[in-house]
Write a structure and sequence with these properties.
Layout (H helix, E strand, L loop, with lengths): L3 H51 L2 E8 L3 E8 L4 E7 L1
Antiparallel strand pairs: 1-2, 2-3
Length: about 90
């Protein structure tokens, strides 16, 4: 029975270490990883906006009436968009 408190303390220390490792992994996934992903997505958006301003896309008229025209645009990186022009 004298060994029981020592075994209990050692097992609690091991459980604490495992829990801390799990929490560090959770914090990394939910803060740092999301920020890295957000930066990459913002870079993609900036590239698409620059291509749109420079006119680096192909366009096809999808639907046209006397009041409006729907134009489908396709960028280099296979991102599609729609322009609605009212006349």
């Amino acid at each position: 029975m004298k060994n029981f408190p020592i075994i209990l303390i050692i097992s609690l220390i091991i459980i604490g270490i495992v829990f801390n490792i799990y929490m560090l992994n959770y914090i990394y996934k939910n803060s740092i990883y999301k920020n890295i992903r957000l930066k990459k997505d913002l870079e993609k958006i900036n590239v698409i906006e620059n291509d749109f301003e420079k006119g680096n896309f192909t366009s096809n008229i999808v639907y046209s009436t006397s009041n409006a025209t729907i134009i489908k645009i396709l960028f280099k990186n296979n991102v599609e968009g729609v322009i609605i022009q009212e006349e």
